[in-house]
Write a structure and sequence with these properties.
CATH class: Alpha Beta
Oligomer: single chain
Strand order of the largest sheet: 4-3-2-1-5-6-7
Largest sheet: 7 strands, parallel
Strand content: 15-25%
Order of helices and strands: EHEHEHEHEHEHHEH
Distance between the termini: 35 Å
Number of domains: 1
Number of helices: 8
Number of strands: 7
CATH topology: Rossmann fold
Amino acid sequence: MQRICVYCGSSPGERPVYAEAARALAGELASRGVDAVYGGSCKGIMGVLADALLAAGGKVYGVMPHSLVRKEVGHAGLTELHMTETMHERKGLMADMADGFIAMPGGFGTLEEIIEILTWGQLGFHDKPCGLLNVDGYFDRLLAYLRHAEQEGFVKSAHLEMLMVESEPAALLDRFTGYVPPAVAKWRD
């Protein structure tokens, strides 16, 4: 793996544990020689991740629509900052640039991005690993919902297993290394 796309909040959240996790992920990526692709902001968890990876000698590629530069404040010190016209272009470029996807704590955008990229994998549009860095149980309620969707017949077990969940960056990245996408059709026969 050369690049991991990291979805995370442009807000710092309420607890320091989120920034600590971003620094830990950045350190683990740097130690493995893996670069990051992310939303391009210098704010919140996004900025912490980028700053920590850059400080550790890694490369960070930001992708941001022109319309968000003023709202999120694009990071001026990145390896590269790619500008797009739309959010759809942003997500497509981030997906194309990455060899895998990790969601850290964040809000609506983070949730939407990891669910969309997981859906793309389910549909066979990519065969890249997807994971949640479950910092201090942040995603526990989301995981309960996804298990409920599985029990109700809306998500196949093999597709739910596509989403790897770990609380430590090293464990999640180790699982990414051996990822094999499921050989199961999306639709029931």
